[in-house]
């Protein structure tokens, strides 16, 4: 067996061993209302800003891909290892920090107070994992069980964030390498890319595609160019999923993202390459077609890939800590 496949197998074994230490009943005694408080906090945030659901989903992804799901992404500038918030894929882009901080306060207020962990019970990493799930559900997407008991890191890693968060100019080989390195299959990677059925991207992340790539729908490109000129307007926003529903429903979690790829209406380069992708992974085109023709297939693959994501190298037992404030180590 090639050494890369061997390490993926080892990674998967490790992930399932670690997830065995997480449990869906972890807070049943110490904080029985934790889950309902998180759900209420997400619902309130999404009611005042529907995009927040997308932002919370992305926050969990960017947490888990760097040092595992340990809330390292939430730490502020003074953290050992630097500030992941300042990494290339995060700076000026990640949102939702204040929502998580508010949920943390609301949750702790209803927990039984222990003498350890500075009196804190529910980890910021668990809040991120549950909030991501509740955000997807709030916009009509699938649900999945989130196992609990992750602990928070005392350090972050801006270097690892810069290395491990996939940039939008990657082709299928690069995307596959990035996700396979974390133990995800090609199908997982395509399903997770379907997270782009919600949320927005900034002009600077899709300008090159608009003006230089041949495989983009002309009407779609013309519309986008109005708000994303050749220079300037770097932070102007466009929906990642130009929804096909009438009237349009860009805030709904559905499989339109994949239907759009079939008509060359992917916003990011890294999204459109999943369709009409060339070697080594032309196989992604078939996966896109499968998800475009069956929302149920997409939902099921997305949910199982999110479970894998939430189980990436959590700190458990006496590792790490339960932070009192999510942006600062205790
Ligand atoms: C496959 C590799 C991926 C790449 C290259 C990528 C890249 C990006 C980029 C460039 C943006 C726009 C950021 C901005 O302009 O401010 C974005 C937004 C977003 N991404 Fe990804 N992403 C990937 C995978 C994922 C995954 C796995 C998820 C979750 C399952 C996800 C969820 C989101 C969401 C929901 C947004 C919108 C956030 C908001 O509106 O605040 N992405 N992504």
Present as ligands are: protoporphyrin IX containing FE
Order of helices and strands: HHHHHHHHEHHEHHHH
Anisotropy-based shape: globular
> Strand share of the residues?
under 5%
- The assigned structural class equals mainly alpha
CATH architecture term of the largest domain: Orthogonal Bundle
- Please give the CATH class of the largest domain: Mainly Alpha
Average pLDDT rating: 91
CATH topology type of the largest domain = Peroxidase, domain 1
Largest sheet descriptor: 2 strands, antiparallel
Q: Tags for this entry?
A:
330 residues; mainly alpha; Peroxidase, domain 1; Peroxidase, domain 2; 2 domains; two-stranded antiparallel ribbon; 14 helices; 2 strands; 2% strand; binds protoporphyrin IX containing FE; peroxidase; oxidoreductase; Peroxidases_AS
Task: Provide a brief overview of the structure.
This protein is mainly alpha-helical.
Description:
Helix 3 crosses helix 5, helix 11 packs across helix 13 and helix 13 packs across helix 14. The model has no long low-confidence stretch (mean pLDDT 91). The protein has a two-stranded antiparallel sheet with strand order 1-2. Helix content is 45%, strand content 2%. It has 330 residues and is an all-alpha fold. The protein folds into 2 domains: 164 residues, Orthogonal Bundle (Peroxidase, domain 1), CATH 1.10.520.10; 135 residues, Peroxidase, domain 2, CATH 1.10.420. Bound molecules: protoporphyrin IX containing FE. GO terms for molecular function: heme binding; lactoperoxidase activity; metal ion binding; peroxidase activity. It holds the Pfam family peroxidase. This is Peroxidase. Its EC number is 1.11.1.7. It catalyses: 2 a phenolic donor + H2O2 = 2 a phenolic radical donor + 2 H2O.
